[in-house]
Design a protein that fits this description.
Bound molecules: adenosine-5'-diphosphate, SN-glycerol-3-phosphate
Number of strands: 22
Family: Belongs to the FGGY kinase family.
CATH topology of the largest domain: Nucleotidyltransferase, domain 5
GO molecular function, one term: ATP binding
Number of domains: 2
Protein name: Glycerol kinase
Catalytic activity: glycerol + ATP = sn-glycerol 3-phosphate + ADP + H(+)
GO cellular component, one term: cytosol
Strand content: 15-25%
Radius of gyration: 22 Å
Mean pLDDT: 95
Number of helices: 16
């Protein structure tokens, strides 16, 4: 009996496999972390072989824990850290280099040159994105320019490129000789190579960057009964499980929150923090620093788009406080430390460790802790660190509201991710936004979104309406802060942000 749907969640710090039942409840989960390879300041890489092996392992373990096999799965979905890109040999399946991670700034010179030669953000009209090291296209060009094995494989026609959905699906569907080389529209849109209107690789951009189309995967819908392929040995699922869904993790979280209607939004607080706002079938170009991105495409339907605000350092800033400052021994401890003080004591922390993403897009920004006096304690720093994510989220909501004006009717923000365990942060988020913040019962919203996309594709769930009925709130935080205080705090935050500009 195929009573379950599985979802691979290949994230920045870990890979998970989660099995869901028909009610969308988690039946089994297995998770394992992988190495963060930081060879130079600002560089971040992963080992694609380790990620492939971890994916196989977590699938085996989660199935074993639940006493299930691949035959019990009606379909699987795949969701992943976006923009991170790998290169491998199509005949051997061996990676040609590390996967270059979304946070990695090694393509900075390439991006600066593109701005200088073709004008700032020269691909925005086609892709909805600014020119930034964040996106995969410049990372692919960096590999072709700096890694001889990649260059040679491209010249020989043996190289394949792909974001982590592509790498995982290619391996799960059989690898060398059999693997399906595909990506979905949400992941493809994060490469800076996909045209938002045609939902295909943009020939002019490929030419400008010198990337051959043959090395890139086919772009397919996010929920599709056939296009993503079926599993094949030697992967752990054996033969014939349909890969029915694939979405970048932030789009998957939007799907998992069932934000299917224009005007609905979610914010995911993980390593980074990503707010997506559903704009329906309309492609809206931001004039205030947001990204335009497909939210999802269901087979046979028009794509749904979103405006996105991406924050590079959220939970990662808490990790920095733990690992580099040693102020806490574990991430959750930051809440107790922050609660040793009543407020931030006028201390602000801007985590522009590798520049600032949305809505500023300032590669020249660097981190600052501002407003220090002799009164400040580590409690104030802990509070400033938590509040940084909430202020950055407010920057994004402000940008959306400038873009959409009277059309913005965001009454509540649905939230998920590791940091939503932190009540102090969530209460401050509601206060500084002056909006309700709602956390759902199923916290693995990203994997749930991929499972939903897969389940819809094979008829496990009939339609999006039936998914919407399953969504249930767990906790709601209501705003309590008075307007004067909110304005004063936010003004000071904006001053602190300005001091982070122009350091390199
Ligand atoms: N209670 C907490 N308070 C603040 N931050 C937390 C807390 N628990 C976890 N985090 C942060 O959340 C992040 C992990 O969240 P998760 O959603 O698993 O991330 P990802 O999917 O990006 O790997 C870590 O960066 C960690 O520092
Ligand atoms: O793996 P996460 O949850 O940190 O998400 C990373 C984002 O997809 C980067 O765009």
């Amino acid at each position: 009996m195929t009573s379950y749907i599985g979802a691979v969640d290949q994230g920045t710090t870990s890979t998970r496999f989660i099995i869901f039942d028909q009610n969308g409840n988690m039946v089994s989960v297995s998770r394992t972390t992988h190495d963060q390879i930081c060879e130079k300041p600002g560089w971040v890489a992963h080992d694609p072989a380790q990620i492939r092996d971890n994916t196989f392992t977590v699938i085996e373990r989660a199935l074993a824990k639940a006493g299930l096999t691949g035959k019990d799965l009606a379909a699987i979905g795949v969701t992943n850290q976006r923009e991170t890109v790998a290169a491998w040999d199509r005949h051997t399946g061996k990676p040609l280099y590390h996967a270059v991670v979304w946070q990695c700034a090694r393509s900075d010179e390439i991006c600066r040159n593109l701005d200088a030669v073709y004008g700032k953000d020269c691909f925005r009209q086609q892709t909805g994105l600014p020119t930034a090291t964040y996106f995969s296209g410049p990372k692919i060009k960096w590999m072709m320019d700096h890694v001889p094995a990649v260059r040679q494989a491209v010249d020989n026609g043996t190289a394949l490129f792909g974001t982590m959905d592509t790498w995982v699906i290619w391996n799960l569907t059989g690898g060398p000789g059999k693997g399906n080389h595909v990506t979905d529209v949400t992941n493809a849109s994060r490469t800076l190579l996909m045209n938002l209107n045609t939902l295909d690789w943009d020939p002019d951009i490929l030419k400008t960057l010198g990337i051959p189309r043959d090395c890139l995967p086919a772009i397919v819908p996010s929920s599709d009964p056939a296009a993503l392929g079926r599993t094949h040995a030697p992967g752990p699922l054996g033969h014939g499980v349909t890969v029915g869904g694939a979405l970048g993790d932030q789009q998957a979280a939007l799907f998992g929150h069932t934000c299917f209607a224009p005007g609905e939004a979610k914010n995911t607080y993980g390593t980074g923090c990503f707010l997506l706002f559903n704009t329906g079938h309309k492609i809206i170009f931001s004039r205030h620093g947001l990204l335009t991105t497909p939210a999802y495409q269901i087979h046979g339907e028009r794509p749904v788009y979103a405006l996105e605000g991406s924050i590079a350092y959220a939970g990662a800033l808490v990790q920095w406080v733990r690992d580099n400052l040693g102020l806490i021994a574990s991430a959750p401890e930051i809440e107790d430390l922050a609660n040793t003080v009543e407020d931030n004591g006028d201390v602000y922390c801007v985590p522009a460790f590798s520049g600032l993403f949305a809505p500023h897009w300032r590669p020249d920004a660097r981190g600052v802790i501002a407003g220090l006096t002799q009164y400040a304690t580590k409690g104030h720093i802990a509070r400033a660190v938590l509040e940084a994510t909430a202020y950055q989220t407010k920057d994004i909501v402000e940008a959306i509201s400038k873009d959409l004006g009277k059309h913005l009717d965001l009454t509540a923000l649905k939230v998920d991710g590791g940091m939503v365990e932190n009540h102090t942060l969530m209460q401050f988020q509601a206060d500084i936004l002056d909006k309700k913040v709602i956390r759902p019962k199923v916290t693995e919203t990203t994997a749930l979104g991929a499972a939903y996309a897969a389940g819809l594709a094979v008829g496990f769930w009939p339609d999006t309406g039936s998914l919407k009925e399953k969504w249930q709130a767990h906790t709601t935080w209501y705003p309590h802060m008075d307007d004067l205080r909110r304005t004063r705090l936010y003004d000071s935050w904006q001053k602190a942000v300005k001091t982070s500009f122009g350091w390199c």
